[in-house]
Write a structure and sequence with these properties.
By secondary structure, the protein is an alpha/beta fold. It has one domain: Rossmann fold. The protein is built from seven helices and nine strands; from the N terminus they run βαβββαββαβαβααβα. It has helices spanning 17-25, 58-67, 86-94, 105-114, 129-139, 144-158, 173-190, and strands at residues 6-10, 32-34, 37-39, 53-55, 70-77, 80-85, 98-102, 119-125, 166-169. The strands form two sheets. Strands 2-7-1-8-9 form a five-stranded parallel beta sheet, sandwiched between helices. It has a four-stranded mixed beta sheet with strand order 4-3-6-5, with helices on both faces. A hairpin with a 2-residue loop joins strand 5 (70-77) and strand 6 (80-85). The longest helix has 18 residues, at 173-190.
């Protein structure tokens, strides 16, 4: 099986990484396919099994951990697990495509460590923590307590940014989208980000 490239996009919740990943998936020339993560949490409004996530029971998730089926996994909140199955990457590579991840910071860095030569790890940085809070409130999908948990987590995640290959500052979405496209394209062509030259 030919191994393709892996593109990890990580960021605190509300940074705009999902918007960037969706945009990149629409660019056919990049030959990307989304890596669907597993989660033990319940689906949220309109999320579909096999499209947004593989929703599996906590018991099944723990069994996969025991079996060593995950490339990376994490208990993000208590009994709230997320992870990437090895078979998911193999499935996408078997189609001759490159894999793109919309994944949390710890998971992103683990993938980079496992496939250092195949992976471009991109950190999407929000303009500020205040702006992050504003975006999360605007979504109106979570309680204030949950938002405050995310903000606390964001401060920790922002500190990991230097461990990524590249940081995209998402002050202006159009600029961030163009920058992400260029980074992915260069890495597919040259095997490294242009910032390493």
């Amino acid at each position: 099986m030919k191994e393709g490239k892996l593109f990890v996009f990580s960021a605190p919740s509300g940074s705009g990484k999902t918007t960037i990943v969706r945009h990149l998936l629409e660019q056919e020339r990049l030959n990307l396919e989304f890596s669907i993560s597993c989660t033990s949490r319940e689906p949220r409004g309109g999320e579909e099994h096999g499209k947004d996530y593989y929703f599996i029971s906590l018991k099944d998730f723990k069994q996969h951990i025991k079996n060593g089926d995950f490339l990376e996994w994490e208990e993000v909140y208590r009994d709230n697990f997320y992870g990437t199955l090895k078979t998911e990457v193999e499935r996408i590579w078997a189609k001759g495509k490159n894999v793109i991840f919309d994944i949390d910071v710890a998971g992103g860095l683990r993938i980079k460590k496992k496939f250092p030569d195949h992976t471009l790890a991109v950190f999407v940085k929000p303009p500020s923590v205040d702006e992050l809070k504003r975006r999360l409130k605007k979504r109106q999908t979570e309680s204030d307590e949950r938002i405050n948990m995310r903000i606390a987590k964001a401060s920790v995640e922002l500190a990991t940014a230097p461990q990524f290959d590249v940081i995209i500052k998402n002050h202006d979405l159009q600029t961030a989208l163009a920058e992400a496209e260029e980074l992915v394209e260069n890495f597919i062509k040259n095997g490294h980000s242009s910032e390493e030259e």
